[in-house]
């Protein structure tokens, strides 16, 4: 197991918790069509927070639970900056968690 795995798992929990706190968590499951996008962050079919909830977090949880190799790079903070810059709210805690994840995954980030 990668020595970063426990810390990655913690960031995933923090991201989910903050999304719930901010009201960004949805009980409505996107359609298979929406989930099958080939575009980065599924920008053509999903709002960013839905992509995080229904694609990013589940895939990362599988990686953590099965002890699979961690990704070599992450740019989720940059994408989150672009998305949340256009919205009102206190996104700093969520952005901080995305940044922590990026720094952990991408040593040169």
From TrEMBL:
YqcC-like domain ranges (all copies): 8-103
Protein name: YqcC family protein
Species of provenance: Pseudomonas kulmbachensis
């Amino acid at each position: 197991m990668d020595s970063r795995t426990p810390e990655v798992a913690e960031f995933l929990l923090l991201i989910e918790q903050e999304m719930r706190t901010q009201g960004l968590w949805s009980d409505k499951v996107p359609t298979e069509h929406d989930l099958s996008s080939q575009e980065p962050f599924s920008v053509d079919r999903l709002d960013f927070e839905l992509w995080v909830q229904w694609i990013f977090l589940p895939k990362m949880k599988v990686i953590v639970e099965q002890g699979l190799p961690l990704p070599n790079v992450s740019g989720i903070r940059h994408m989150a900056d672009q998305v949340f810059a256009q919205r009102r709210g206190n996104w700093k805690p969520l952005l901080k968690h995305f940044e922590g994840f990026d720094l952990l995954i991408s040593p040169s980030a």
